[in-house]
Write a structure and sequence with these properties.
By secondary structure, this protein is mainly α. It is 70% helix and 0% strand. The protein contains four helices and no strands. Helix 2 packs across helix 3. The protein is globular and about 35 Å long.
């Protein structure tokens, strides 16, 4: 959470996560705006925010949402 979401390291991690999920979705078409929807959930959905922050630390949900948004740019 201490690194800039725009950094090459964080953006490479986001790219790896998205590639991993896309390779392991068993052919399921998640739709064109799936990752944008997920970014918005991390930023605005109280359930996502509470669960993510509880598991990874205060502010983690916002951090993930912003990192996804920047990647999707």
């Amino acid at each position: 959470l201490s690194k800039d979401v725009e950094s090459d390291e964080i953006q490479a991690t986001v790219r790896e996560l998205i590639d991993f999920c896309n390779q392991n979705n068993n052919g399921l078409d998640v739709g064109e705006n799936y990752w944008g929807f997920m970014a918005e959930n991390y930023l605005t959905n109280p359930v996502f925010i509470n669960v993510t922050d509880k598991k990874y630390g205060e502010g983690a949900s916002e951090y993930i949402g912003k990192a996804l948004q920047y990647y999707l740019g």
